[in-house]
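Closing statement on the WT7 sub-project.
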Amino acid sequence: MLRCPLQLVRLRLPVRQLSDLTTKFTGLGSFSNLNYDQLQSSLRTDSSQCEQFWKLIGEQQLNWMQPFHTVSDCDLKSAKIAWYLGGKLNASANCIDRHLATRADQTALIWEQDEPGNQVYITYKQLHAEVCRIASLLLQSGLQAGDTAVLYMPTGPPVVYCMLACARIGVAHSVVFAGFSAEALAARIQDVGAKVVITTDQAIRGGKTVELKRTVDAAVKSCPMVERVFVSTRTGASVPMGSIDVPLEKNAAACSADCAAEPMDSEQPLFVLYTSGSTGKPKGLVHSTAGYLVYTSLTHQHVFDYRPGQDIFGCVADVGWITGHSYVVYGPLANGGTTLLFESTPAYPDVGRYWETAERLGLTHIYLSPTYDLSRLRVLGCVGEPLNHEAWEWYHRWVGGGHRDIADTWWQTETGGVCIAPRPSAEGAPILPAMPMRPFYGLEPVLMDPATGAEVTESPAEGHLCMRRPWPGMARSIWGDHKRFAETYYSQFPGLYFTGDGASRDAQGFLHITGRVDDVINVTGHRLGTAEIEDALDSHPAVSETAVIGYPHKLKGEAVYAFVILKDGVSIDRLGDLRRELKRRVRDRIAAYAVPEKLLFTDGLPKTRSGKIMRRILKRIAAEDYDSIGDISTLADPSVVEALKQHHDLYQ
Ligand code: WT7
């Protein structure tokens, strides 16, 4: 049974000697020839070894325009994180220019368009020219190093060009997933203070067109700081063009295909990426240039055992999420790899799409979030749908067939890259199904007891997952709110990074993730804060109070369940309309994937005497797990629970 959000499926597993795996760090000074356990224990017990390790890795992974003088300057107690100080480099030059001598004609990007069979190949030489032209255009438009630009574009070559063009001239990009509503987009443009927005006329996904430019038009109405909107052409449909709008490709074509890569400080923000937290508005996590690139390139190489020039890496994530940033764009390109840009959906034109694509393009790796499609595949396989027979075979052979081929990887927007994964040390040890198992080199996960605040040292055990040692790829701040950054991640367990997840450690010390311990939920791999959805629902004039929780859903992983108390005097005849209006409101304020799957009107919510909603109880009700509701005597009104159970049953 597969239950983890992100997994690597290794297609066409190469025959490798076990000895290869023990000598991955050949040429790395005293770390050469150490196996995983030896390396980890030397890094764990000796800080100067750790420093030396990341120094050699930093020098080895990247091209520096000016060498760094200090490996790290971190103090997790005060949320201070800095790596490779004194160094200067450019991320775009590291992802493109340094490969030109040896890989100019190698494919850098394979664009798998929405309609199967329309793949487009882009070489490193072409990538260089396109990125330079757009970088030149951005410079001409007045953008300069230190500015920010928002990208609201579908997964495809143009968004990669724009990300790297921004990096080339020192502009931090903030990619906003092209499924977000105009309101959500506007909030992000305002928060990050973007002068420039880059979008696409229309996106095409799953055979449907999505009006991106029109959404941007609606968003920028409330964003006076936006001076320019560049519009990339995907469908060529005529979209309204106003005075600040400029066609991207037409203007870039007239610009120079040579644009110098600006030397940037190691700690210069490379990008800002918004993600949901348990409270408040989404947070713009800030990632650095050097540390992020060191870490994503290293993890891409080791966690996925990636061999540039031979392997075709198929991470099917949208570029709008961290997985797209780290393992579609920066990791693979920094390593001189060939990377897939997947424009479609897992179920278009049918649920065999991933496997059909993998076969047609000859992918060697597929990195995906299987909660949705694989469960579908399993069902279809069982009922023997002939159309999907091939897909089922793929699944059976590559996914179900041998657990050695699957790597469950744990990480977060905040961590920049994979932190826990079975891969770096597969030295003959079995890879256990559905658990990420081992920390990446130099990382030190710890389990903390939330009640006592003390570390849980024995095994097996369960606790809140924290990280003791800093690593180069971790987020540096929340854009414009370092205090919130420190409070969210570094205050609960002083001196440690708190992930927000729970984990268990088995007797052998292997880690298994048990899920969020806060009010963050994960719907088809998209992270949502329940408070965001509550805010959207609460804004409706008929609503008095709401409580939103996530509940297990067999296709989506988790789905949204909203409990809604209406204001006095709202007519019961309006319930049908209200249900539609409330769903609409969530769609308009956030995105379609945030819309509650279930919405229950109720007269009361389970609250403590001090007025705190007991979400634990709501979760049990939603999951119909009535037996473990537990003690309800501390509730202000225990009868609420019985009423909710009955309504819930009725609602089914
Ligand atoms: C949350 C982070 C995976 C990076 C992209 C998503 C959950 C992540 C696993 C895993 C179980 C996982 C956690 C985490 N998660 N990986 N292998 N097994 N849960 O990044 O959107 O920031 O979400 O995804 O709950 O906190 P994200």
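Residues 4-6, 275, 322-323, 408-413, 436, 499-501, 513, 516, 522, 527 surround WT7 (CB under 6 Å). With this model delivered, the sub-project is considered complete and its resources will be redirected to Aim 3.
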